[in-house]
């Protein structure tokens, strides 16, 4: 399978690239900082510099041509302000989906977040409110498209070693932690599964082996 990963130097993205290339898939990682290219190459993926806050639809579509699937794993990240939640977490996903449609790539996995689209509780800080709004709007945009989309909402991400065991299901599964390693493993399994498209799935660590969790969807 040929997979394009947007936000290719992200912590989930690097784990995903490593897993894909290890099983014989081809990964092309879109990064915004050329200094990150060697880290991406070390995963076995091919880095391409593509800043999703500056690129045009055609430029992104050129990178997607011939791919079997696209994964949106970018995010403005902690420490960024409300404006970049909109330009990355929402607009970059919309741009990637536009490019996927233009390039004829049907499978689109969006890494979203639990809480996406929910009205923030009173007293929530502006940046968190902007984040869940941006993620919610990116999800809505994707769900309205004629693509084989999957919205994947992890719980609280950790860098612990993967367990291979998860709880995966339609909202709401309940907020809890999930390792980035297990998120990457679930994305690989979803990409290679059939009949899992057009779903919004929440993901935390749990008791069910990943393949069984996907088989039971
Ligand atoms: N933290 C949590 O508990 C949590 C929970 C659920 C979901 N999530 C979401 O899960 C997703 C992935 O998480 P993660 O930990 O892997 O994220 P991460 O390590 O912060 O990676 C995000 C990547 O997006 C890239 N990016 C930012 N702006 C870009 C642009 N304009 N063009 C191209 N790439 C750009 C970043 O590049 P640079 O390195 O150049 O900045 C970074 O490599 C994020 O969307 C995050 O919001 C997080």
UniProtKB/TrEMBL annotation:
Gene3D superfamilies: NAD(P)-binding Rossmann-like Domain
CDD domains with a match to the protein in the record: SDR_a5
InterPro entries the UniProt entry points to: NAD(P)-bd_dom, NAD(P)-bd_dom_sf
Protein name: SDR family oxidoreductase
NAD(P)-binding domain sequence ranges: 7-192
Lineage, opening ranks: Bacteria, Bacillati, Actinomycetota, Actinomycetes, Streptosporangiales
Domain of life (superkingdom): Bacteria
